[in-house]
Amino acid sequence: NLTQRLSKVVKTLRGQARLTEDNIQEALREVRMALLEADVALPVVKDFIARVKEKAVGQEVIGSLTPGQALIGVVHDELVALMGGQSEGLKLEARPPVVILMAGLQGAGKTTTVGKLAKWLKEEKRKKVLVVSTDVYRPAAIEQLRTVAERAGVDFFPSSPEQQPEAIARAAKDWAERHFHDVLLVDTAGRLAIDQPMMDEIKALHAALNPTETLFVVDAMLGQDAVNTARAFNETLPLTGVVLTKLDGDARGGAALSVRAVTGKPIKFAGVGEKLAGLEPFHPDRMANRILGMGDILGLVEEARRTVDEHKAKELAQKLRTGKGFDLNDFREQIVQMRKMGGIGALLDKLPAQFAQAAGQLQGGMEEKAISRIQGIIDAMTPQERANPDIIKASRKRRIAAGAGVTVQEVNRLLKQFDQTQRVMKQFSKGGMGKVMRGLRG
Ligand code: GDP
Ligand code: MG
């Protein structure tokens, strides 16, 4: 499995000073095999390996890490990115009742997930929940939902096999509206394989309900088949997310790894057991840790990165203090660090008190979006340009603007801002807090 193969990777790279195209070749082969064994779709694997290679080759191995450990760090980051990076929750802000429509094949775990979600919404989100079944083909299915609702302690809207699924759905939504339910969970019928009548029915339900969330429920144990059904549903229905069930039984994790890449839709929840409590919001980083199963090494990677970040922050603070040698590389580094540490706050702790105050004033005006644009512009520069902004004349400006997808005016503005910052810092190193404050605001 991936853990075993990667342990081998760590060993093969022992004694190498840095990661090169040659020495990671074998390591990448192991990663590739491990992903294929985990039943990850081939195009996804190819893409993944290419990205890891691009990120890893030539990378300075930071701090105390061995190259093998550093590579694991890269693999981990790319696994997280593959699964969508951030964890994405449900949209619950819409006008109540917020309708959540569940779709999926029979046996995927829809009814169970409705119960789990109902319990989660009630207990974690303090929502008033109504559930309804439109599975009119199997009377036992409606009964199953009634039992589940009772155990979850939420309201159940009765339906019967003589009714039309759409009519049931409309009536339930109407009821939820009049009885002030926050959320309506709609369970649906599934077939053993995708067929047209089922697709037509779920489309009609979607049209009748106008749901805020349309979740595709899929059994993770089906591996690539899970991903293929997800793709088919995604082409018919505007899905908003995926629930991967039975992850407790799936050691391979292949579906978790490819479903996002193939459908573009986030995995929002993971089913991890038959009980009503067996549901977790899906966290790509936790899943990556689980798949890698290398808690010790990942801990080292994190620690090394933190140390490097701290080191860089200290170096930067030194430059800020003296104003000496502060160039656009540092400016960019400052921005990156700021974003990484979740804002300017953490960085401020490392600065001398007076400067921290001044920078605090600055913070208000620095919107996250503006910061990322600035970073984009600096990223489009060459290292020489960053070290020596004076060489950036008209044609370089045009190239940078095109590279960053901004106007030349914006590049000009950034250069001017940087020039001012630099000047302010020089004043600051000569003392005179008042001047600094004026400079920062100006
Ligand atoms: P539906 O046909 O899509 O409504 O599927 P059900 O909700 O009836 O579930 C089918 C089977 O899968 C049942 O035996 C459930 O107990 C089981 N199941 C559902 N979710 C999970 C899960 O996350 N883990 C495990 N181990 N079993 C699950
Ligand atoms: Mg069911």
Describe this structure in words.
- The longest helix has 28 residues.
- Helix 10 links the parallel strand 6 and strand 7.
- The C terminus is likely disordered.
- The protein is α/β, with parallel strands linked by helices.
- It has 20 helices and eight strands.
- The chain folds into three domains: 81 residues, Four Helix Bundle (Hemerythrin (Met), subunit A) (Up-down Bundle), CATH 1.20.120.140; 185 residues, P-loop containing nucleotide triphosphate hydrolases (Rossmann fold, 3-Layer(aba) Sandwich), CATH 3.40.50; 143 residues, Signal recognition particle, SRP54 subunit, M-domain (434 Repressor (Amino-terminal Domain), Orthogonal Bundle).
- The relative contact order is 0.09.
- The site of guanosine-5'-diphosphate has 18 residues, from helix 5.
